[in-house]
Structures are given as structure tokens and as C-alpha cells.
Amino acid sequence: MKGMELNSLKQMFNSYIRSWKTNGINHVTTLIVLSFAFTIILSLSTLTLNLERILTSWGKNTEITVYLSDSVEKSTISNLEMQLNKISQIESTKFITKKDAHLEFKEQMSQYAPELMDDEDLASALPQSFRLNLKPHVESNHLASLSEKISSFAGVDEVSYGQQWVSQYSAIVEGFKKSGWFINLTILLSSLFIVGNAIRMSISQKREEIEILELVGATNNMIRVPFVFEGALTGGLASAMAITLSYLVVVAEREIASSIGFFWNFSQQIAFLDAYKLVLFILFGSLSGALGSYLCVRKLNSGWAASRRLGGSH
Amino acid sequence: MIELSHVYKSYPGPVHALRDFCLKIDRGEFVFLVGPSGAGKTTLFKLISAFDKPTTGYVKVGNKRIDQISIGEVPYLRRKIGVVFQDFKLLRDRTVSENVALPLQIIGERDSIIKNRVREVLDQVGLKYKEEYYPEQMSGGEQQRVAIARALVHRPGILIADEPTGNLDPELSQEIMNLLERVHAQGTTLFVATHDKGIIEKTNRRVISLREGSLERDGIEFSETNV
Ligand SMILES: Nc1ncnc2c1ncn2[C@@H]1O[C@H](COP(=O)(O)OP(=O)(O)OP(=O)(O)O)[C@@H](O)[C@H]1O
Ligand SMILES: [Mg+2]
Questions:
Q1: Atom of ligand 1 nearest to the CA of B213
Q2: CA torsion through residues A70, A76, A82, A83, sign
Q3: Nearest by Cα to B99 from B150, B164, B153
Q4: Would you state the pLDDT for residue A61?
Q5: Residue A114 — φ and ψ, nearest 5°?
Q6: Residue A28's pLDDT is what?
Q7: CB atoms A3 and B108 under 8 Å
Q8: For A299, how many CA atoms within 13 A lie in the half-sphere containing its CB?
Q9: Banded model confidence at residue A125, pLDDT cuts 50, 70, 90
Q10: Average pLDDT of A71-89?
Q11: Is residue B208 a contact partner of residue B217, using CB atoms and an 8 Å limit?
Q12: What are the per-10-residue average pLDDT scores of chain B (227 residues)?
């Protein structure tokens, strides 16, 4: 495009370097503050991600047991089995008769309560049930609604999946996600402010340059775009630094988790965001930098900035 | 080409920098502006170069009234005018050649063309070997010549020069005047403020003289009292 040469990448980069030379401290401070802010955002996202991963991995191991009513008919049972097999989240169903249940119970309990072993009343008291395995992608927080659905089927007495644990944990994760959003939004807004402030300092430092450019015929965009570029570069740099910082945090967490070692796979569960998300994050950093600076320079050049400033003195 | 009609310009304070000032300069003219310090010469140039707006009255450049063009058009008007500012207005953190290249970069000229043209103009003002200097490494007279080079580099239709030889010795002054003559010969309209009697006497051109913001004289003959 004609008239854009002044804003070629090379030119704007040069101007960014010049601005570092004359105003390095401002740049360093901004970068540090901004990358800490971004590190908080990243670490929160990583934490939420990891909590969710744990939730999902529990979901994989979760079984649902569907206890049947005592007086249930054979036809009701086969009907129920058909209904269960139609549910897409369920991988497999296994029918457990009263006898199976008793045998299993005996196996599990023999060490603890041998005197119960031959109690025939108990054997008949254990209900028949279906044991359901879930497909891997089913998340634990869907268990509640799934079990509610199954409860309403004919012949079902009770559905059990270790409700308390999972639902409490998933409530915590949900809460975390929500407050995470709030915190992220707050930090994001302050980041805009931080970048805006840095750009405002750059502007006042370049006041003379802006006026001269204006006087030799630079358009509004020619004057503004380099500042937006500067903001984007600052935001991008800060998010790259934030990625490095929060990666170090994750490495440290893994170290700690494996030294505690009370869950054999706990340290493996701690993951960092994948490459695709990291690229997105840098983009996000650059964009918020550009936005913060745009908000600042929007009204920068009226075409008569020089005369306006010189209006009172010479 | 340039027309001012009943222009008043006042700054905060009691004095009018310009009072009821009228002027017409035709295309291709070479006009000198004289007047004692504080007479309003720089103020007049600021109005013509769309640096500032008159308080009342109007300024026309080309066929456009500066107060009536849109903000978007202002830069394009400024590109048609080359201005040698009294205080040079060079960018301190750019080299001489970067400073001179600015008007060409703004119009999106190709790098190779810019390079050649900048060399050529710097050669004309006698600064061929100081391309890579920064303004603060140069004397006042050298900076002034950089400002002249920048005003000429894009071959503007109008050249306004606010005391372009103010810091130069007589020999260099004469060289710069010769350069301005050549630029004029190529069709550029020139409006030059100066205190240099010698120059005005020699050239025998139209001289406008200002006093306390008003037009005092306008004519070819030159009178001692006006400088
Ligand atoms: N920005 C300003 N604010 C207030 N007054 C100003 C301003 N600029 C100029 N003036 C006043 O306007 C009058 C004319 O000033 P101007 O700079 O045009 O004079 P000049 O003829 O260029 O003088 P010189 O030969 O010293 O450059 C002066 O009285 C000056 O004090
Ligand atoms: Mg002056």
C-alpha cells in the first residue's frame, strides 16, 4: 500500500529498538510486571487443567453399580439391560446375580469378618445388580446426571458411584474454574492498563518525534501503528517470558509431587499446556498488548498536535 | 498559489502576532519576507504550512482553504509543501540521511530511490560525507542544511524557508541561495524569510515586509529600514 513504507516491519522494529535505547528502564519494568501478570494467568490455567485431568482420570476408573429392587421380574431385568446398553456413555454392562454378589463379598470380607461368611440370610440380602463401565471420555462431573437418569428406569432400586467424593471434587474444580475466570479477567484488564501506561510514557517521550512526523505529512495511522506494534511486541515478549516462568513452576511441582510420591502416578498427572495452547497464549499476549496500546493512541494525533501543544508557549 | 485574507492570529496574551494580514503569491514566484524579530514571520509561515490555523480570516494553499479541509487531508497538503523550520525540527535519534529520507518514506517511495535522492540532496547542501551523523554531532549551520535538504528532498511545489541561512557564513549562504535559485528555476514557488540584506539586494526580487503583525511593504524595491 502506498504511504505505508514508514510502517514497514523493519522501520517499526528499528523504532522499537531506538525506544529501548532511550527508555530501557521503562521497557524492562513493563516487561517484568506484565510477565508476572501473565504468569498468574498461565499458572491458574495450568492448575485448572491439572485438577480436571485428575477428575477425568478418576472418571475412567469409576464404576456405576445399579442395584435392582428385590421383587424385580426377569423381563424387567432384560428390558433394563437393553436400556442401559443404549446409553452412549456406557462401555459395558455386567449382570451380577445374588450369588455372584455373595461370592465377591465373601472374598473381600473374609479377612475382616470371617464369622459373617456362612450367613445365608446375608447371602440372600445382597441385591442383584448391574455393574457399568464408562467410556474413557466420560467426565466425572457427568456421573450425577447419568445416575439420576438410570435411577428412573423400572426395576432400579439405587445407583451408586461414590457420589460424595466425586461430586465434591468436581464442585471444587468448577469453583476454581469460575473464580479463575474472574481472576484472569481482572489481570487481563490490569495488563491492558500496564501496557497502556507504558505506551503513554513512550508517547510523551516521542512527543517531539510525533509532531515532526505530523509536520512533514505523516498520516494518523503512520503515527499510531508503530505504537500499537510496540504494544503487541511487549505483550508477546511478556507472554513468552510468562510461559518460561510457569513452565518452571510446573517442573518444580512435578519434583515435589514425585518426592512425596504417595500416588504412584501423581507427578505424571501434572501437565503443562500443549504447544497449540502456548501459541494461542502468545497471540493472546500480543493482542492484549496491541489493544492496550491502541486504546491509548486512538486519539493521539488530531492532525494539529504540534500547534495545539505550542498554542500556549514557544 | 498562496493566499491570505484578513488573517488575524493571536496567542494567549495581549499581542496579535498577525493583524488583518492579506497576501497573494502566484505559482512560480520567489518572494522574500523581512521584518524585525517578533514581527510575525514564523507565525505567517506556520499558517501557510498548515502547522497552525488563523484565529480569523482564511489561508488558501493551492486552491484549498486550510481551515476547511478535513483532518484526513491535512497530511497530504503538508506533503506538497517543503518547510525549513527556524528551529530545524530534526529527529534527534535518527541519522542525517534518515532525517532527510522522512518525507520520501512517508509517501511510500522505494528504498533504492530514496537512497539515491537523499545522496543527491545531501550533496547539494554540501553534507555528502555526514550521512551517518546524528544531528547533535553537527554544528548549527550543518543542522540547518540538513533541514534544507529534508525540505527539498520530495521536490515540493512550494518551499517555505524560515531564515534558511541564519546560521551560515556568507560563502555558504551564497551557496544555499544558489541552490534555492535552481529549485525555483525548476518551477517551485519559494517564500523565504531572511535578515540577510546582502542576499535581498543582490537578487532583486519581491520583498514583503512585516512589522508588528501587519504588512508594511510589498514590492520589488528594497529599503534599508525594513530589515
Ligand atoms: N506559541 C506562541 N505563544 C504565544 N506567543 C507567541 C507564540 N509564537 C509566537 N508568539 C508571539 O507572536 C509574535 C510573533 O512571533 P514570530 O515567531 O512570528 O516572530 P518572528 O517574526 O518569526 O521573529 P524572529 O525573527 O525572531 O524569528 C511574537 O510577539 C511572539 O511573542
Ligand atoms: Mg521566526
A1: 14
A2: negative
A3: B150
A4: 62
A5: -60, -25
A6: 93
A7: yes
A8: 0
A9: confident
A10: 85
A11: yes
A12: 94 88 95 94 94 92 89 91 94 93 93 95 93 93 94 96 91 89 94 89 89 90 54
Q: In the predicted model, is pLDDT for residue A243 greater than 70?
A: yes
State how far the Cα of A143 lies from the Cα of A160, in Å rounded to an integer: 10
| Confidence category of residue A314, pLDDT binned at 50, 70, 90 | very low
Whether chain A has a CB inside 8 Å of the CB on B78: the answer is yes
Written as nine digits, the cell of B133 is 551523523
Candidates B12, B102, B105; nearest CB to A312: B12
| Cell 524492562 found at | A28
> pLDDT value at position A3?
39
- Domains of chain A are 3-58+167-313 (no CATH), 63-161 (3.30.70.3040)
Contact A216, A6 (CB under 8 A): no
Residue A73: pLDDT over 50: yes
Residues on chain B touching A1 (C-beta within 8 angstroms): 108
Atom of ligand 1 nearest to the CA of A310: 1
Phi, psi of A69 (to 5 degrees): -65, 155
Domain residue ranges of chain B, discontinuous segments joined by +: 29-39+75-226
Query: Could you give the CA distance from residue A229 to residue A293 in angstroms, rounded to a whole number?
Result: 8
Residues in chain B: 227
Q: Per-residue confidence at A163, pLDDT binned at 50, 70, 90?
A: low
Question: If you measure CA to CA, which chain B residue comes closest to A3?
Answer: B108
Helix ranges, B38-169 (H):
41-48, 74-79, 96-106, 111-124, 140-152
Task: Provide φ and ψ at A112, rounded to 5°.
Answer: -85, -40
User: Which residues does ligand 1 sit against, CB inside 6 Å?
Assistant: A 310, 313-314; B 11, 13, 15, 17, 35, 37-43, 86
Q: What 3 state SS string does chain A have?
A: CCCCHHHCHHHHHHHHHHHHHHHHHHHHHHHHHHHHHHHHHHHHHHHHHHHHHHHHHHHHHCEEEEEECCCCCHHHHHHHHHHHHHCCCEEEEEEECHHHHHHHHHHHHCCCCHHHCCCHHHHHHCCCEEEEEECCCCCHHHHHHHHHHHHCCCCEEEEECCHHHHHHHHHHHHHHHHHHHHHHHHHHHHHHHHHHHHHHHHHHHCHHHHHHHHHCCCCHHHHHHHHHHHHHHHHHHHHHHHHHHHHHHHHHHHHHHHHHCCCCCHHHHCCCCCHHHHHHHHHHHHHHHHHHHHHHHCCCCCCCHHHHHHCCCC
CB-based contact A151:A158 (threshold 8 Å): yes
C-alpha cell recorded at residue A12: 517499526
Place of cell 554540501: B126
The better pLDDT of the pair B214, A304 is held by B214
Q: Kindly state the DSSP code that residue B26 receives in the 8-state scheme.
A: -
Contact call for residues B33 and B191 (beta carbons, < 8 A)? yes
Confidence of residue A5 (pLDDT cuts 50, 70, 90): low
Whole-angstrom Cα Rg for chain A: 32
Grid cell, residue B125, equals 547542501
Q: Does domain B29-39+75-226 have CATH number 3.30.450.20?
A: no
